[in-house]
Amino acid sequence: MSKTIITNTLAMLPFVILSGASAYAQPSGVLEEIIVTAQKRDQNLQDVGISISAFSADQLRDAGITSTDELDRMAPNVLIRNGAAGPTITEFSIRGVSQNDFGDHNEAPVAVYVDGAYVSYYGGLSFGMFDIERVEILRGPQGTVFGRNATGGLVHLISQKPTDEFEAFVDLTLADYDQVRVEAAIGGPLTDTLSARVAILSDEHDGYIDNRIGPDTNEQDATAYRAQLLFKPSDAVDFLLNVHGYDDDKVAAGGYTHEVVDEDTGRPIGPDEINPFCVNNFGYSAGPGNDCGFYREPDNDPFSGSYDGPLLFDRSLFGTTGTLNWDLSDTITLTSITDYLKIEKRYLEDSDGSPNPIFNSDSDQDADQVSQEIRLNGEMDNSRWLAGFYYLNIDGDYEQGGETPDFFGSHMNWSLETTTWSVFGQMEYDFTPELTLIAGLRWTEDDKDASQTLTCSYVCGPEPLVVPLDDLDQSDGDYSYKLQLEWHPADDTMLYAGVTRGNKAGGFSFAPFVSINTFQGVPAYDPEVLTSYEAGFKTTFGDGLYRLNGSLFYYDYEDYQAFSLPAPFTQLIVNVDATVVGAELEFVATPWEGWEFQLGMGWLDAEAEDVPTGPGTVDDQEMPQSPSFSANGLIRKSWLMSSGTLSAQVDANYVGERQQAVLNSFGGTLEDYVLTNARIGWASPDDKWDVSAFVKNVFDEEFYPVTFGTGNGAVIRVYNPPRWAGLQARYRW
Asked: I need a surface site. Which of 367, 599, 622, 643 has the fewest CB within 10 A?
C-alpha cells in the first residue's frame, strides 16, 4: 500500500471522528478488573504481592503491539531488544537483569513462557503474537511457583483457548513497506465434551533498509499457526492439546548501519579527518574520513548501507503442549504440563557493515527441548498451597564463526545437553483476614555436558586446522526461597514486603575468537545468585476510577553473569558481584466520561563491581540495559455514537541513556529516546466490525538499541524502524 494513500487517510480520520462525536459520550465506569495467574490461580491483579504489568488482548491491539519485542512500550523497568541486525537473538531485561551474550546455547535470566510452557531459546523469543488472551510480566526472581527458575523475572504469553460457543474473526493490516498482515481464528464445540480452536498468522513486508549493492534488508516473511483441542469428559477433568509452529522464510536480515569513529574514544570522524584509530592500531592512514578498510558511507542515512556478504535469517519453530487439569477433590487440583519444542535457525550477517570483505559471520542452531511439570494446588480454610516437580532437557547442536577471506577464519561447532530437575512449593497462610504470610522453597539441579571442535583457517596455515577440544561437564545444585508478608488494611489497598532468593546455573562461553589464540578450551562461568529485598503497595481509590501501584527494591547480586566483548566479536561471560536499587510506579485513571490515562515510571541504579577492564585492572561499571529513568504513558478517548464507538489514542515511552555491555565505553553507549505512537478507530454497535488507522513512531525518531565496535575504526548499529503507518480492519462472527 502506498504511503500517499495511508497518509491521506490518516489525515482525514480525525475530522471524521470529531465531526460526529461531540453529541455523544461514553458513560464513565470503574476500572476493569484484571485477572492474572501469577501464583497459578485466578486472582485480581491488585491482590497479588508481585510487581506485575498485565495486558489484555484489546489493550495490546489498541496499542498496536503485535510482536513480543514491542511489549516494553507499556511496562516500566522492562527493555526488550534484538541483539543483532535481526531477531536471531532477543534480550529481555527486567530491572537491569539481562544477558546479552549472543550465543544460541544460552538460557536467559528472564524466563519466557507460552501457555504455561517454558521457551529456553534466545532465538525463539521474538515472534508475532496472534490470537492472544493476555500477557503478564512479573518482575523479580521467580522459582517457587513456576517450573523454570529465573533471577530476573518472567514473561507469560497466554493464548485464547477453545470455547463452548462458536467464535471466529479475521484481522487484516495494510501498511508501509507493502506490509500485509493477516490474523485469523475459528473455534467452538465439536461434541459435548470436545472443542477446538485454530489460529493463523501471515505477516510480510519489504525491507526498510536500502542495500545499495544488493537486496534490501530487514524484510519479513513470517507464518504461524496454532491448533488446539480441549477435551472435558467431566467437570473435574480437562485436557488441552496445543500444536503450534512459527516460520521465518529465508528473509534478508543482518545489515548494520556503518559509521566511522575513533574506537578508542567513540568520537565520530569527520569526512576530512584522518581516523587516529587506524594510525594508532595499524600504523597507516586509510584516507580522510575512512575506516581502516578505506570506506565511508556516502551519506548519514541510518536506513541505507552497502553489504557485500549474503544476508539471511531463516528460522523454524515447532512445538506441542499437553496440559491436564484434574480436580482430585473439592480442594486439590493436579496439573500436568508436557511440552516439546524444536528450533532450526540459520543467520548470516555482514559484521563490518561495509562493502569490503572485512568480516562476515554466521550462526546455526538445531535444538530440541522437552519439559514436564507436575503440580498440586490446594486450599484450606485459611491457607493456599502448591507443590511441584519440574524436568527439562535441552539438546542442541550449534555453529558460530566468521572470516575475512584469504586472511582469517574461525568457526566453532559444539553440542550442549542441559538436563535439569527441581522440586518447589509455596504456602500462603492467613494469620487474620488482613494479614498473610507467603513462604516458598525450591531446590534445582542443573547438569550440562558439551563437546566442541574449533576450526582455524588462513592464519593457521595453508589448510584449515581442526582442533577437537576437551569435553566439558558442569553440575550445579542450589536453592531458592521466598518469604513475604501481605497486609490488607482496607478492601482496596494492599501492602507487601519480603525477601526472595533466585539463582541461575553456570555455563560455558563458546567463543571461537577467545579460544583461537590458545586452543586451551572454552571458558566456564559460575552460577549467579540474586537476593531481592522488595516492598510495595497496590491501591484503588476514587470510587474505583483510579489505580496506583508502586514498589521499591534492592538487589544483592553474587557472581552476576556479566557478558562483555573484550575485543570485537569476542564473547566472554565473567562472574562479578553487583547491586541494583530501583523502583516502579504505575498509575491508571478513568476520571471523566470516555477518558483513560496510563502512566508508568521506572528508576534504576545498577552497578557491577570490580569488572575486569584490562590486564590486571578492574573497575565498577554500569550494568547493561539499565537506564536510570524510563517512563511510558497513554491517553485514550472514546465517543459513543449512534453509528458505533469512535476512539483516539496516543502512547509514548521514554528510555534513558544506558550501556550495551558491562564493559562501559563511548562506543557502547545507547542514547535516550522517545517513541510515540497514535491510533484512531471505529467499532460497529454490535462490535462485529472495527477499523483503525495507526502510526508507529509518529515523529520518525531515529535511535539505535544495538551498537558494536568493529575493530576496524567504525561502529555498526541497528536502528529502530522508521515511521510506519497503516490501516487495520477486523470482522468477528
From this structure: 643
- d(CA 661, CA 99) in angstroms, rounded, equals 9
C-alpha span between 673 and 669 (Å, rounded): 13
The tally of CA atoms less than 13 A away on the side-chain side of residue 72 is: 22
* CB atoms closer than 10 angstroms to residue 471: 11
pLDDT at 466: 81
CATH at 427: 2.40.170.20
Task: Quote the pLDDT of residue 564.
Answer: 78
Q: What is the pLDDT of residue 204?
A: 96
Which residue's entry shows cell 565498577? Answer: 620
**pLDDT lower than 50: segments of the chain:** 1-2, 4-28, 515-516, 518
Strands of 153-281 (E only): list them: 153-159, 167-175, 179-189, 194-205, 210-211, 220-234, 237-251, 257-262, 267-268
- In terms of pTM, does the model score above 0.90? yes
- Cell numbers at residue 180, please? 500485509
User: What single letter denotes the amino acid at residue 393?
Assistant: N
Total domain count for the chain?
1
DSSP string, 257-282: EEEEEETTTTEEPPTTS--HHHHHHH
Taking the C-alpha atoms of residue 453 and residue 512, their distance in angstroms, rounded to an integer, is 9
- Encode 683-713 in three state secondary structure: ECCCCCEEEEEEEECCCCCCCCCEEEECCCC
Phi, psi of 351 (to 5 degrees): -80, -10
Q: 544 with 30: CB under 8 angstroms?
A: yes
Q: Cβ-count burial of 476 within 10 angstroms (0-12 exposed, 13-18 middle, 19+ buried)?
A: middle
The shares of helix, strand and coil residues in the chain, as percent rounded to the nearest 5, are: 5, 60, 35
β-strand pairing of 153-159 with 110-114: parallel
Q: What is the Cα–Cα distance from 40 to 721, expressed in whole angstroms?
A: 37
The two beta strands, 312-327 and 383-404, are: unpaired
